[in-house]
Amino acid sequence: MNLFDVYPLNDIEITKASGSTVWDANGQEYLDLYGGHAVISIGHTHPHYVKRLTEQLAKVGFYSNSVKIPLQVELAEKLGKVSGKTDYQLFLCNSGAEANENALKLASFYNGRKKIIAFKGAFHGRTSLAVAVTDNPKIIAPVNETDNVVFLPHNDEQALKDAFASYGNEISAVIIEGIQGVGGIKEASKSFLQLIRALCDEHNAVYIADSVQCGYGRTGTFYSHDYADVNADVYTMAKGMGNGFPVAGISIAPKFKPWHYMLGTTFGGNHLACAAALAVLEVMEQDNLMKNAEETGNYLITELRKIEEIKELRGRGLMIGIELPEELSQVKKNLLFKQHIFTGEAKPNVIRLLPALNLTKEQADHFLENFKIALKG
User: Fold this and answer.
1) Low-confidence spans in the chain with pLDDT less than 50
2) DSSP E strand stretches across 8-85
3) How far is CA 52 from the centre of its chain?
C-alpha cells in the first residue's frame, strides 16, 4: 500500500527534537520557528510534558466518555483559570476542524438558524462545515457546498453591517480568526471584533472566535481575540493545546445549556490527551510563556521593521507574517536548506513565524542574522 499523496514534502526526516531545535537523519541541526503549524507551544520533548504523558500512560491511556474522567475536570478548571474564562464550559475533541464543526453546530442548536457569516481569507478546517466556511473553493467538494455561508471582506465594517441588515435574524453565527494564519497573518481590528460582538448581541447570533492557530497564548493574550476587550460566545482551540498530542476543545459561554448527546466524541478528552493539555498549561503558567511570547515577539517585530527588503510586516506576539516582494520568493527555501531554519508560508509570498512560546532572544537573534543572509541568496 502507498501513502495517499496529499502534501509536497521537503526531503528532510526529523529524528530528534528538543526545545526549538530539531535534527534530521543526517545529524543536521535546525532552528524550528514553525513548530509544525503552531503546534509546538512549549518546545519539543519538554521534560515536564514527557513526564506527565509517560506517568499517565503507565496508569491508563484511554477509556471512553461513559465513565468519570477526573483529568477532564482538572483540565477544565486549569484552562478556565489560565484563559480567564472561569465561568465558561469545556467540550473536548480531537482537532481544530472538529472544534469548529462543533462550535457551528452548537450555535445552530442554540438559535435554530442556518446562515453563517465568514470572511475572505479564512481557514477553519477541512471537514464538512468547517471547509464550507473556509475561503478556498479548491478544497470544497460538491458535497460540502452550501448556500448557508456568506463570505464578507475581512475587516470591512460596512459590509458586516449590511449583511446583518439583509439577513438579520437568519444569521446563526459569525466565525472569525483573531489573526488569519493560512490567510497570511492578517489581524482582525479591535473595532471589527467589537462590532461583531454588538451585532451578534442585537440579533441573538453566536460569535465564534476561531483560536485554533492564533490562540493558546501565542499573541501574549490567551485568545488573540481578547485584545478587543469583548468576549466571544465560543472559543475554538487545538494546535498548541497538546504540544503535538491530538487534542482540541471549545470553550462555551454559560448562556449555552447542554442536553445529553447534543455533542459527542469517542477519543475527545481521553486520559492521555488531558495529561498532554494539562502539561502545556502548567508549563505556560510556571514559565510565564504568554509574557515571553509578547516580549520576544515584540523584539522580533521591532528588529524586522528595520529590514528594508520586507514589503509588509504583520502579526502580534509569536505569530508573525513577513511579506516579501516576488523577486525574493526563494527566501523561505534559502532559510530551510542553506540556513537550516524551519519557517512556514502563506501564499503568495508570506513567511510565517509560529515558534514555541519559550523561544529565546538568542534564538530570535540567530533567525534575524540568518534571515538577512537568506535575503541576499
Assistant:
1) none
2) 14-18, 21-24, 29-32
3) 23
